[in-house]
Amino acid sequence: MKNVTDSFVFSGHWPSAGSFGFNTDILATNLINLSVVLGVLIFFGKGVLSDLLDNRKQRILNTIRNSEELRGKAIEQLEKARARLKKVEMEADQFRVNGYSEIEREKMNLINSTYKTLEQLENYKNETIHFEQQKAINQVRQRVFQQALQGALGTLNSCLNNELHLRTINANIGMFGAMNEITD
């Protein structure tokens, strides 16, 4: 148990600290530092991240609505084409003797062009949704990274004053000197 407490309270390189000391074991303090940084990032970043995600969600929903409107227009065109088809079919009955094959060709061309238009609109809608999703993911990643970096820099700047910085440098120099003496 003494070894565990020694890793947290080691005052060999901190003579002015008295009975309280700082842990100079880099491996033991990295876990603590990482957990503190992650806690700060989660605490401060989750509100911003949720706002960004809500904004992206609204944009994606608007894009979907726009795509649905385009789809509705395409369906209206399809209904108009079907109405026109019915009209053509009635005319075909009247002119069957004169040009039955001509009317059939026009009917098939009309149906094919309408279906091609619908397929193109559906493909455009899917591509737009996929593009907007990728764009949203990239923006969220970039903003989270920026905020994490700003938070980490702010934490470091607020926690590291000149005296602590000099003490840390002196302690590390002392440790490296001791290591060099041992290896020599």
UniProtKB/TrEMBL annotation:
A Gene Ontology term for the protein's cellular component: chloroplast thylakoid membrane
Location of this chain's protein in the cell: Membrane; Plastid, Chloroplast thylakoid membrane
Transmembrane segments: 26-49
Example GO molecular function: proton-transporting ATP synthase activity, rotational mechanism
Coiled coil (UniProt feature): 64-98
InterPro entries per record: ATP_synth_b/b'su_bac/chlpt
Record's bilayer topology term: Single-pass membrane protein
Keywords: ATP synthesis, CF(0), Chloroplast, Coiled coil, Hydrogen ion transport, Ion transport, Membrane, Plastid, Thylakoid, Transmembrane, Transmembrane helix, Transport
Job description of the protein: Component of the F(0) channel, it forms part of the peripheral stalk, linking F(1) to F(0). F(1)F(0) ATP synthase produces ATP from ADP in the presence of a proton or sodium gradient. F-type ATPases consist of two structural domains, F(1) containing the extramembraneous catalytic core and F(0) containing the membrane proton channel, linked together by a central stalk and a peripheral stalk. During catalysis, ATP synthesis in the catalytic domain of F(1) is coupled via a rotary mechanism of the central stalk subunits to proton translocation.
Quaternary organization: F-type ATPases have 2 components, F(1) - the catalytic core - and F(0) - the membrane proton channel. F(1) has five subunits: alpha(3), beta(3), gamma(1), delta(1), epsilon(1). F(0) has four main subunits: a(1), b(1), b'(1) and c(10-14). The alpha and beta chains form an alternating ring which encloses part of the gamma chain. F(1) is attached to F(0) by a central stalk formed by the gamma and epsilon chains, while a peripheral stalk is formed by the delta, b and b' chains.
Family statement: Belongs to the ATPase B chain family.
Further details from the record: In plastids the F-type ATPase is also known as CF(1)CF(0).
Protein name in UniProt: ATP synthase subunit b, chloroplastic
Source organism per UniProt: Froelichia latifolia
Gene name tied to this protein: atpF
